[in-house]
Amino acid sequence: MELKEMEAAIEGILFAAGDPVGVERLCMALDMDRDTVDSVCQRLADRYRYDRRGIRLVRLESSYQMCSAPEFAGYIRKAFESRKPARLSQPALEVLAIIAYYQPATRAYVDQIRGVDSSYTVGLLLERELIEECGRLAVPGRPILYRTTQNFLRSFGIAGLDELPELPNSTPEDGQITMEMQAAVERLKAQQESEGGETPPSEEEILAAAVELAQREAAASGATGEEGKEAEGA
Questions:
Q1: Structural domain tally of the chain?
Q2: What Å distances lie between residue 146 and 43, 137, 138, 207, CA to CA?
Protein backbone atom coordinates (compact mmCIF):
# COMPACT_ATOMS: atom_id res chain seq x y z
CA MET A 1 0.00 0.00 0.00
CA GLU A 2 1.36 3.39 -1.01
CA LEU A 3 1.79 6.20 1.50
CA LYS A 4 -0.99 8.35 0.01
CA GLU A 5 -3.39 5.43 0.16
CA MET A 6 -2.45 4.70 3.78
CA GLU A 7 -3.02 8.34 4.75
CA ALA A 8 -6.39 8.38 3.01
CA ALA A 9 -7.42 5.11 4.65
CA ILE A 10 -6.51 6.37 8.13
CA GLU A 11 -8.38 9.63 7.49
CA GLY A 12 -11.46 7.70 6.42
CA ILE A 13 -11.37 5.35 9.42
CA LEU A 14 -10.92 8.11 11.97
CA PHE A 15 -13.52 10.38 10.36
CA ALA A 16 -16.10 7.57 10.26
CA ALA A 17 -15.37 6.49 13.84
CA GLY A 18 -15.71 9.89 15.47
CA ASP A 19 -14.43 8.40 18.72
CA PRO A 20 -10.78 7.49 19.43
CA VAL A 21 -9.55 4.43 17.50
CA GLY A 22 -6.89 2.20 19.03
CA VAL A 23 -3.64 1.91 17.11
CA GLU A 24 -3.95 -1.89 17.22
CA ARG A 25 -7.27 -1.65 15.37
CA LEU A 26 -5.69 0.58 12.73
CA CYS A 27 -2.83 -1.89 12.34
CA MET A 28 -5.29 -4.75 11.87
CA ALA A 29 -7.41 -2.84 9.35
CA LEU A 30 -4.41 -1.72 7.27
CA ASP A 31 -2.35 -4.88 7.80
CA MET A 32 0.58 -2.72 8.86
CA ASP A 33 2.96 -2.77 11.82
CA ARG A 34 2.57 -0.28 14.66
CA ASP A 35 5.68 1.76 13.88
CA THR A 36 4.43 2.38 10.35
CA VAL A 37 0.94 3.38 11.48
CA ASP A 38 2.35 5.71 14.16
CA SER A 39 4.64 7.30 11.59
CA VAL A 40 1.81 7.89 9.09
CA CYS A 41 -0.47 9.31 11.79
CA GLN A 42 2.28 11.68 12.94
CA ARG A 43 2.86 12.74 9.34
CA LEU A 44 -0.85 13.54 8.94
CA ALA A 45 -0.96 15.41 12.26
CA ASP A 46 2.07 17.51 11.27
CA ARG A 47 0.57 18.34 7.88
CA TYR A 48 -2.79 19.43 9.32
CA ARG A 49 -1.02 21.69 11.80
CA TYR A 50 1.46 23.12 9.27
CA ASP A 51 -1.27 23.89 6.72
CA ARG A 52 -3.47 25.43 9.44
CA ARG A 53 -6.29 23.10 8.51
CA GLY A 54 -9.60 23.16 10.37
CA ILE A 55 -9.06 19.60 11.62
CA ARG A 56 -6.45 17.98 13.79
CA LEU A 57 -5.30 14.42 14.31
CA VAL A 58 -4.52 13.92 17.99
CA ARG A 59 -2.94 11.05 19.87
CA LEU A 60 -4.63 9.93 23.08
CA GLU A 61 -2.32 7.42 24.77
CA SER A 62 -2.54 4.39 22.41
CA SER A 63 -5.38 5.78 20.25
CA TYR A 64 -5.89 8.41 17.55
CA GLN A 65 -8.84 10.71 16.88
CA MET A 66 -9.89 13.38 14.41
CA CYS A 67 -11.09 16.63 15.97
CA SER A 68 -11.53 20.29 15.09
CA ALA A 69 -8.65 22.73 15.42
CA PRO A 70 -8.84 24.63 18.74
CA GLU A 71 -8.19 28.02 17.11
CA PHE A 72 -11.50 27.73 15.24
CA ALA A 73 -13.54 26.78 18.30
CA GLY A 74 -15.32 30.15 18.34
CA TYR A 75 -16.65 29.73 14.80
CA ILE A 76 -17.70 26.15 15.44
CA ARG A 77 -19.47 27.09 18.66
CA LYS A 78 -21.28 29.94 16.93
CA ALA A 79 -22.45 27.60 14.16
CA PHE A 80 -23.78 24.80 16.36
CA GLU A 81 -24.59 26.25 19.78
CA SER A 82 -26.82 29.06 20.97
CA ARG A 83 -24.67 29.66 24.05
CA LYS A 84 -21.22 28.81 25.37
CA PRO A 85 -20.86 25.47 27.16
CA ALA A 86 -20.76 25.70 30.93
CA ARG A 87 -17.25 25.78 32.30
CA LEU A 88 -16.15 23.43 35.05
CA SER A 89 -16.65 24.94 38.49
CA GLN A 90 -13.81 25.26 40.99
CA PRO A 91 -15.06 22.23 43.01
CA ALA A 92 -15.24 20.18 39.79
CA LEU A 93 -11.68 21.14 38.88
CA GLU A 94 -10.52 20.21 42.40
CA VAL A 95 -12.13 16.75 42.23
CA LEU A 96 -10.84 16.20 38.70
CA ALA A 97 -7.30 17.15 39.73
CA ILE A 98 -7.34 14.76 42.70
CA ILE A 99 -8.54 11.86 40.56
CA ALA A 100 -6.11 12.70 37.75
CA TYR A 101 -3.06 12.68 40.05
CA TYR A 102 -4.06 9.92 42.47
CA GLN A 103 -6.05 7.59 40.22
CA PRO A 104 -7.52 5.15 40.71
CA ALA A 105 -9.23 6.97 43.59
CA THR A 106 -12.39 6.40 45.62
CA ARG A 107 -14.90 9.16 46.31
CA ALA A 108 -14.21 8.81 50.04
CA TYR A 109 -10.54 9.56 49.42
CA VAL A 110 -11.49 12.64 47.39
CA ASP A 111 -13.77 13.73 50.26
CA GLN A 112 -10.94 13.30 52.76
CA ILE A 113 -8.62 15.57 50.77
CA ARG A 114 -11.24 18.26 50.09
CA GLY A 115 -12.96 18.07 53.48
CA VAL A 116 -16.46 18.13 51.92
CA ASP A 117 -18.84 15.68 50.25
CA SER A 118 -18.04 15.28 46.55
CA SER A 119 -20.84 12.95 45.41
CA TYR A 120 -22.58 15.56 43.24
CA THR A 121 -19.34 16.69 41.63
CA VAL A 122 -18.23 13.13 40.90
CA GLY A 123 -21.61 12.51 39.25
CA LEU A 124 -21.17 15.65 37.13
CA LEU A 125 -17.72 14.56 35.96
CA LEU A 126 -19.13 11.13 35.09
CA GLU A 127 -21.87 12.74 33.01
CA ARG A 128 -19.31 14.80 31.13
CA GLU A 129 -17.25 11.63 30.57
CA LEU A 130 -14.15 13.17 32.12
CA ILE A 131 -13.89 10.30 34.63
CA GLU A 132 -15.12 6.70 34.63
CA GLU A 133 -15.47 3.76 36.99
CA CYS A 134 -12.54 1.34 36.85
CA GLY A 135 -13.26 -1.34 39.46
CA ARG A 136 -13.66 -1.52 43.23
CA LEU A 137 -11.23 -1.28 46.13
CA ALA A 138 -10.71 -4.60 47.92
CA VAL A 139 -11.93 -3.46 51.35
CA PRO A 140 -15.27 -3.80 53.21
CA GLY A 141 -18.02 -2.08 51.27
CA ARG A 142 -16.13 -2.45 47.96
CA PRO A 143 -16.10 1.31 47.11
CA ILE A 144 -15.95 2.29 43.45
CA LEU A 145 -12.61 3.41 42.00
CA TYR A 146 -12.48 6.24 39.47
CA ARG A 147 -9.97 7.25 36.81
CA THR A 148 -9.76 9.83 34.04
CA THR A 149 -10.90 9.10 30.47
CA GLN A 150 -9.65 9.72 26.97
CA ASN A 151 -12.14 12.60 26.84
CA PHE A 152 -10.20 14.14 29.75
CA LEU A 153 -6.95 13.90 27.77
CA ARG A 154 -8.57 15.43 24.69
CA SER A 155 -10.25 18.22 26.67
CA PHE A 156 -6.98 19.28 28.31
CA GLY A 157 -4.87 18.84 25.19
CA ILE A 158 -2.50 16.14 26.44
CA ALA A 159 -1.60 12.80 24.91
CA GLY A 160 -1.15 10.89 28.18
CA LEU A 161 -1.07 11.23 31.95
CA ASP A 162 2.71 11.48 31.84
CA GLU A 163 2.25 14.97 30.39
CA LEU A 164 0.52 16.25 33.53
CA PRO A 165 2.64 18.79 35.44
CA GLU A 166 4.56 17.19 38.31
CA LEU A 167 3.27 17.70 41.81
CA PRO A 168 5.73 19.42 44.16
CA ASN A 169 7.65 17.12 46.51
CA SER A 170 6.27 13.98 44.84
CA THR A 171 8.15 10.67 45.01
CA PRO A 172 7.81 7.37 43.11
CA GLU A 173 6.39 5.76 46.27
CA ASP A 174 3.49 8.22 46.49
CA GLY A 175 1.20 6.07 44.33
CA GLN A 176 1.52 3.03 46.60
CA ILE A 177 1.11 5.19 49.71
CA THR A 178 -2.04 6.72 48.24
CA MET A 179 -3.61 3.30 47.60
CA GLU A 180 -2.73 2.15 51.12
CA MET A 181 -4.25 5.32 52.56
CA GLN A 182 -7.45 4.88 50.56
CA ALA A 183 -7.79 1.30 51.74
CA ALA A 184 -7.18 2.34 55.35
CA VAL A 185 -9.79 5.12 55.15
CA GLU A 186 -12.40 2.78 53.68
CA ARG A 187 -11.73 0.08 56.30
CA LEU A 188 -12.04 2.59 59.14
CA LYS A 189 -15.29 3.99 57.77
CA ALA A 190 -16.73 0.49 57.42
CA GLN A 191 -15.64 -0.31 60.98
CA GLN A 192 -17.28 2.84 62.35
CA GLU A 193 -20.54 2.07 60.52
CA SER A 194 -20.62 -1.52 61.79
CA GLU A 195 -20.00 -0.41 65.39
CA GLY A 196 -22.81 2.14 65.16
CA GLY A 197 -21.30 4.63 67.63
CA GLU A 198 -23.48 7.49 68.83
CA THR A 199 -20.98 10.21 67.90
CA PRO A 200 -19.41 9.72 64.45
CA PRO A 201 -15.73 10.70 64.19
CA SER A 202 -14.70 13.83 62.34
CA GLU A 203 -12.98 13.73 58.94
CA GLU A 204 -9.68 14.74 60.58
CA GLU A 205 -9.96 11.91 63.12
CA ILE A 206 -10.65 9.36 60.38
CA LEU A 207 -7.73 10.59 58.30
CA ALA A 208 -5.36 10.58 61.29
CA ALA A 209 -6.48 7.07 62.21
CA ALA A 210 -6.04 5.98 58.60
CA VAL A 211 -2.45 7.24 58.58
CA GLU A 212 -1.73 5.33 61.78
CA LEU A 213 -3.41 2.18 60.45
CA ALA A 214 -1.52 2.36 57.14
CA GLN A 215 1.77 2.78 59.01
CA ARG A 216 1.02 -0.17 61.30
CA GLU A 217 0.10 -2.38 58.36
CA ALA A 218 3.24 -1.35 56.44
CA ALA A 219 5.38 -2.12 59.51
CA ALA A 220 3.69 -5.47 59.99
CA SER A 221 4.18 -6.32 56.33
CA GLY A 222 7.87 -5.41 56.56
CA ALA A 223 8.32 -7.52 59.68
CA THR A 224 6.67 -10.50 58.00
CA GLY A 225 8.97 -10.11 55.01
CA GLU A 226 12.06 -10.05 57.24
CA GLU A 227 10.93 -13.15 59.09
CA GLY A 228 10.42 -14.92 55.78
CA LYS A 229 13.95 -14.01 54.67
CA GLU A 230 15.41 -15.25 57.97
CA ALA A 231 13.50 -18.51 57.64
CA GLU A 232 14.82 -19.01 54.11
CA GLY A 233 18.36 -18.29 55.32
CA ALA A 234 17.99 -20.85 58.10
A1: 2
A2: 34, 10, 14, 20
